[in-house]
């Protein structure tokens, strides 16, 4: 007999109800049974100390691991300031490893040196920026900060001027934000900021090969954790595992070509907006920190090559026209001498360029907005470069490439910053020379430490840069050896530097020695002044210059280097020749002072004793002079000038 549908539904409904009721009763009975069973035992209270220890074991493990890694110097020490010599600070050259993990040759700052303990008469300026802030392609000695250093030193000789440039190639606002607390700890009198061109492709930027995503909180947290060796170890292990299972890629080309991961970023796209938000958020935090410490800041808009740099990538996106089309329209308007229209179109073409190596107009707007919000002045260097350019549109006249200024361009930026410092009253408090602004500028430019070698280094760097993507297609790249043909020894030195086959200091020392062997004293001193400008605490460089100039009998110039050497570290050499030169100028008290000091350092130099005798002869103190000359002869019996002077003194003195 088959069941009807109504019968089937009734059975299903009541069987389900029955099962549920039965299960509830059985569960209740089970609970009562378990409860009765447990009641027969005496259960001890949970030992809370046991659980506390259990929880602390991993904490102790990581603490011990961190201590062990530090003892064995694992990874990198990211202490912001390190001591090249006792009492001096410099930005840690390893610091960039904190932000770069996918490239081998990480950038470093200009390595400007300053006092660990700020002196009462010091005027301390910090500079924040990227490659243009660092002075590329003339790094390290072509930056606008060097102009400011020169000019401040000329106008305020009684102040200890310290201009510390913390800019680095291929970084962006994440790095600057990370550096800011350490900078504020060093009691800056002023902070100058020229930054923003690298916001998309710089380290950890939203479009960079080093990107960690678009969340500022996560990126800044990772940067913070990098200071711990344990975190570095975990990151390195994960990176090794990733490389083990990913195809090997050989990274070649310029740093610029390697950093652009998310290459095309259309105007108004989500990633475009994230880049603007990233810059605004990080810069807001930077300025807030400065404001809380009452530290003055001068901001600046960013200039770029508008007229002579075609858009790198032209795409149709989101209803916007291709950048290349707008650029051609700008050229047409320029040819018609419609300058305002041409300038507007060139700027629009730059903003449409989907390869964001030049700061868009929106980013400059953010800089103006932040300056207004925090009441910090904003230099409009973008407009200033236009005003100083033919047809009032910035091009190759002030730019070496798409955004890096010429040496003259960097000096203009330095001059504009200096003028703003003067306007807002942020200058040293010591007595100024009261030179006119034009005189200050001309002297700063004339004394700017730069040589032919540095010009070649900058020229070769730009050649290599433009021989790679995005300037040309990678298949059209010319081998470096075919691109640059060194004609002489100095050319070869510059080429070796840009090819990373030699370091900056070694190349300059070799150049100085080569000029000296060819009796080119002017070029020798130019290169040595560049070295001294970069390493002002290396006494040997001052002594080397002084010794060479003494051999050439250029005593006035030698005196300058001797005095600098003596200020840093008095020695038998510096005091001896300072004394001899003062004696030749009939400055007997100073001559006696220096020569006496030289004897303290080394009392076995017969020439010092002889010259000291000369001081006393000119002061008519013949007995003292005779005493000095006898000492000279005792040290060198064949010292004919001393023997002759002794006879003259003995004849002049009564028996």
Query: Can you list the strand order of the major beta sheet?
Result: 5-4-6-7-8
Task: Provide the CATH top-level class of the largest domain.
Answer: Alpha Beta
What number of structural domains do the residues give?
3
For the record, give the distance between the C-alpha atoms at the N and C termini, rounded to a whole number. Answer: 161 Å
Number of helices: 27
Main sheet attributes: strand count, strand direction, barrel closure? 5 strands, parallel
Helicity level: 55-70%
Give a summary of the structure in a few sentences.
The protein has helices at 5-38, 48-71, 131-134, 144-155, 173-185, 216-225, 229-245, 255-259, 270-292, 323-335, 339-352, 361-374, 381-387, 407-423, 437-446, 452-465, 480-483, 489-498, 504-517, 521-534, 539-551, 555-568, 572-584, 588-601, 606-618, 622-635, 640-652, and strands spanning 81-82, 88-91, 114-115, 122-129, 160-165, 190-194, 297-300, 378-379.
Describe what this molecule looks like in 3D.
- The chain has 655 residues and is mainly alpha-helical.
- The chain folds into 3 domains: 1-42; 81-427, SGNH hydrolase (Rossmann fold, 3-Layer(aba) Sandwich), CATH 3.40.50; 455-652, Alpha Horseshoe (Serine Threonine Protein Phosphatase 5, Tetratricopeptide repeat), CATH 1.25.40.
- Helices cover 56% and strands 5% of the residues.
- It is built from 27 helices and 8 strands.
- It has helices at 5-38, 48-71, 131-134, 144-155, 173-185, 216-225, 229-245, 255-259, 270-292, 323-335, 339-352, 361-374, 381-387, 407-423, 437-446, 452-465, 480-483, 489-498, 504-517, 521-534, 539-551, 555-568, 572-584, 588-601, 606-618, 622-635, 640-652, and strands at 81-82, 88-91, 114-115, 122-129, 160-165, 190-194, 297-300, 378-379.
- The strands form 2 sheets. Strands 5-4-6-7-8 form a 5-stranded parallel β-sheet, with helices on both faces.
- A hairpin with a 5-residue loop joins β1 and β2.
- α4 (144-155) crosses α14 (407-423), α21 packs antiparallel against α22 (555-568) and α26 (622-635) runs antiparallel to α27.
- The longest helix has 34 residues, at 5-38.
- The protein is globular and about 110 Å long.
- The termini are far apart.
- Mean pLDDT is 89; it is low at 1-20.
């Amino acid at each position: 007999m088959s069941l009807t549908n109504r019968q089937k539904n009734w059975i299903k409904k009541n069987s389900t109800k029955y099962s549920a009721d039965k299960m509830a009763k059985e569960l209740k009975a089970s609970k009562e049974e378990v409860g009765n069973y447990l009641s027969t035992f005496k259960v001890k209270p949970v030992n809370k100390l046991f659980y506390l220890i259990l929880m602390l074991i991993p904490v102790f493990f990581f603490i011990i691991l961190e201590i062990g890694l530090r003892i064995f110097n694992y990874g990198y020490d990211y202490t912001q300031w390190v001591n090249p010599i006792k009492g001096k600070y410099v930005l840690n050259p390893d610091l960039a490893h904190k932000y770069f993990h996918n490239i081998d040759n990480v950038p470093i700052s200009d390595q400007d040196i300053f006092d660990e303990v700020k002196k009462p008469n010091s005027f301390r300026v910090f500079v924040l920026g990227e490659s243009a802030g660092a002075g590329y392609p003339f790094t390290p000695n072509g930056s606008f900060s060097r102009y400011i250093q020169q000019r401040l030193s000329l106008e305020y000789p009684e102040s200890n001027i310290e201009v510390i440039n913390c800019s680095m190639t291929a970084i962006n606002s994440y790095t600057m934000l990370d550096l800011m607390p350490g900078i504020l700890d060093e009691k800056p009198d002023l902070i100058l900021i020229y930054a923003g061109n690298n916001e998309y492709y710089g380290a950890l930027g939203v479009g960079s090969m080093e990107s960690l995503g678009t969340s500022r909180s996560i990126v800044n947290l990772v940067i913070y954790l990098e200071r711990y060796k344990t975190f570095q170890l975990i990151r390195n292990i994960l990176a090794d595992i990733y490389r083990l299972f990913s195809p090997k890629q050989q990274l070649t080309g310029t740093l610029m070509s390697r950093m652009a991961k998310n290459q095309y970023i259309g105007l108004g796209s989500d990633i475009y907006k994230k880049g603007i938000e990233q810059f605004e958020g990080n810069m807001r935090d930077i300025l807030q920190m400065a404001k809380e410490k009452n530290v003055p800041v001068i901001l600046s808009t960013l200039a770029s090559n508008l007229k002579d740099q075609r858009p790198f990538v032209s795409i149709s996106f989101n209803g916007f026209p291709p950048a290349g089309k707008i650029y051609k329209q700008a050229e047409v308007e320029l040819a018609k001498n419609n300058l305002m229209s041409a300038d507007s179109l060139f700027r629009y073409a730059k903003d449409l360029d989907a390869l964001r190596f030049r700061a868009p107009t929106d980013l400059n707007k953010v800089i103006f907005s932040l300056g207004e919000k925090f009441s910090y002045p904003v230099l409009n260097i973008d407009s200033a470069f236009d005003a100083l350019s033919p047809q009032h549109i910035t091009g190759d006249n002030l730019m070496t490439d798409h955004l890096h200024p010429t040496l003259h361009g960097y000096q203009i930026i330095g001059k504009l910053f200096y003028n703003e410092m003067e306007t807002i009253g942020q200058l040293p408090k010591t007595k100024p020379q009261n030179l006119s602004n034009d005189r200050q500028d001309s002297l700063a430019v004339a004394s700017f430490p730069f040589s032919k070698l540095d010009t070649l280094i900058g020229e070769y760097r730009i050649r290599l840069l433009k021989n790679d993507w995005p300037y040309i297609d990678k298949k059209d790249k010319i081998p470096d050896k075919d691109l640059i043909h060194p004609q002489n020894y100095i050319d070869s030195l510059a080429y070796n530097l840009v090819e990373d086959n030699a370091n900056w200091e070694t190349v300059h020392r070799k150049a100085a020695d080569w000029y000296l062997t060819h009796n080119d004293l002017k070029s020798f001193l130019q290169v040595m002044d560049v070295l001294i400008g970069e390493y002002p605490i290396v006494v040997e460089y001052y002594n080397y210059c002084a010794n060479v100039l003494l051999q050439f009998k250029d005593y006035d110039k030698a005196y300058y280097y001797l005095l600098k050497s003596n200020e840093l570290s008095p020695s038998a050499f510096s005091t001896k020749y300072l004394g001899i030169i003062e004696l030749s100028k009939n400055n007997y008290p100073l001559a006696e002072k220096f020569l006496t000091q030289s004897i303290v350092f080394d009392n076995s130099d017969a020439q010092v004793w002889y010259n000291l005798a000369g001081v006393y002869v000119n002061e008519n103190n013949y007995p003292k002079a005779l005493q000095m000359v006898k000492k000279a002869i005792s040290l060198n019996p064949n010292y004919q000038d001393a023997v002759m002077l002794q006879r003259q003194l003995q004849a002049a003195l009564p028996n």
